[in-house]
């Protein structure tokens, strides 16, 4: 749609002001193109985004690209082994430099006029320039990049939030035992989800994996998240008793390994929001195989026993992770339009694990491939619902407090700078 032909901008400040806690957002937050543009600018343009893992770019010259709205980023390991991030825009006449999602290069060469850059972004070839041309002034524009225990994050703006180091100091003690830098990608898949990115995030933050919605995961997870003992029905009582036994086993395993035990829930209390928690699994307590059976015989890092539950990390605004004793599953979600998102799922195993011997890639990925398909259908139904003129915001349940915290973070971050939100929306809607 031509930006000048858009409908009159919505009054986002009024929408925010009248939103009571505990209710879902009004429809324009999930459908309006100007609010989507505002989300790109104020959420995805001003916060740290999970991009990739170090395991995806293990050697010098290895790269991945990531597209976020109008932005494209190159994440590359340079000749010295450091990780760099660059805007994927040639400094000559603006052509996109790398088009593949991943690959390996000796140098980064623009396909249009062959301007050539080292992997650290330095310009080393620009044909037919005058003697006064300063090569050093025309390197690829850098993107802020940080690593944390093998996970790589980028920031698209000029002033990244200054709390990344504080967050990393908390989380690295949880993640270090899994030694993600010594893993490899067993499989990676992308799926387009026909829903606004906030609906995708809400669906993930719900975390009620029950037999009706996710029967494959139900064999591993206990369906008691968010419940206190007083909330347990007679039907759930046997499951809850089994959960208590599994929780005691996990606590003993963590104590023996010197593993952190505290849950850290800081979804809406900091700029770089996160939530890390450690859950026991049902059955064998190990992984996402049938009845929580292991899926890879080679364990990660220093995790010394298979039955080590699921370490779950949720990261605002675009990622969530599951770390098991035998593999890790990483999810990266990015907006692709007001009503469309792209979910990338990456499965990591130990670097020395041998496909077909230590793990079967089909079995390794089965439960989450099925779950992603189920979630894709659920998100499409949710998007269809919020586009219905009859839609009104509804109340979150008592066990959906993570969704409320997630949305509260989102609303707070939209208004955090004190800038006029309504004027910004009007500007985007006018295409200025």
From TrEMBL:
InterPro entries: Rieske_2Fe-2S, Rieske_2Fe-2S_sf, Ring_hydroxy_dOase_asu_C_dom, Rng_hydr_dOase-A. Keywords: 2Fe-2S, Iron, Iron-sulfur, Metal-binding, Oxidoreductase. Gene3D superfamilies: Naphthalene 1,2-dioxygenase Alpha Subunit, Chain A, domain 1, Rieske [2Fe-2S] iron-sulphur domain. CDD domains: Rieske_RO_Alpha_N. The keyword Metal-binding applies. Its cofactor is Fe cation. Residues 48-154 form the Rieske domain. Pfam families: Rieske, Ring_hydroxyl_A. Signal peptide: none annotated. It comes from the Bacteria. This is Rieske (2Fe-2S) iron-sulphur domain protein. It comes from Nostocoides japonicum T1-X7.
């Amino acid at each position: 749609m031509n930006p000048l032909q858009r409908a009159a901008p919505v009054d986002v400040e009024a929408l925010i002001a009248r939103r009571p806690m505990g209710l879902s957002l009004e429809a324009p937050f999930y459908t309006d193109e100007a609010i989507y543009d505002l989300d790109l600018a104020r959420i995805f343009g001003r916060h740290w985004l999970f991009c990739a893992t170090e395991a995806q770019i293990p050697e010098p010259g290895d790269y991945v690209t990531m597209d976020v709205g109008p932005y494209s980023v190159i994440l590359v390991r340079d000749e010295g082994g450091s990780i760099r991030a660059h805007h994927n825009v040639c400094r000559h006449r603006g052509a996109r430099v790398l088009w593949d999602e991943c690959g390996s290069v000796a140098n980064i060469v623009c396909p249009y006029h062959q301007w050539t850059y080292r992997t650290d972004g330095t310009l080393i070839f620009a044909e037919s320039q005058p003697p006064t041309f300063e090569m050093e002034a025309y390197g690829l524009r850098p993107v802020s990049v940080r690593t944390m225990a093998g996970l790589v994050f980028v920031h698209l703006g000029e002033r990244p939030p200054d709390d990344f180091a504080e967050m990393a100091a908390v989380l690295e003690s949880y993640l270090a035992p899994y030694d993600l830098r010594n893993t490899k990608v067993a499989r990676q898949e992308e799926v387009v989800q026909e829903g606004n990115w906030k609906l995708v995030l809400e669906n993930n933050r719900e975390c009620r994996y029950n037999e009706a919605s996710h029967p494959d995961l139900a064999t591993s997870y206990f369906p008691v998240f968010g419940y206190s003992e007083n909330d347990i029905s007679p039907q759930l009582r046997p499951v809850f008793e089994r959960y208590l036994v599994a929780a005691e086993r996990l606590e003993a395993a963590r104590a023996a390994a010197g593993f952190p035990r505290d849950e850290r829930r800081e979804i809406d209390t900091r700029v770089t929001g996160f939530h890390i928690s450690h859950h026991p699994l049902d059955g064998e307590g190990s992984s996402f195989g049938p009845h929580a059976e292991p899926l890879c015989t080679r364990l990660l890092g220093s995790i010394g026993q298979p039955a080590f539950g699921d370490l779950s990390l949720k990261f605002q605004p675009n990622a969530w992770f599951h770390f098991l004793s035998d593999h890790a599953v990483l999810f990266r979600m990015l907006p692709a339009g007001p009503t469309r998102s792209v979910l990338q799922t990456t499965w990591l195993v130990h670097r020395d694990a041998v496909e077909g011997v230590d793990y079967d890639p089909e079995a390794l990925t089965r439960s989450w491939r099925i779950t992603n398909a189920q979630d894709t259908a659920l998100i499409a139904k949710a998007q269809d619902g919020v586009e219905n003129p009859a839609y009104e915001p509804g109340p979150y349940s008592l066990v959906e407090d993570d969704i409320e915290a997630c949305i509260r973070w989102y609303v707070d971050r939209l208004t955090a700078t004190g800038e006029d939100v309504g004027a910004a929306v009007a500007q985007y809607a006018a295409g200025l």
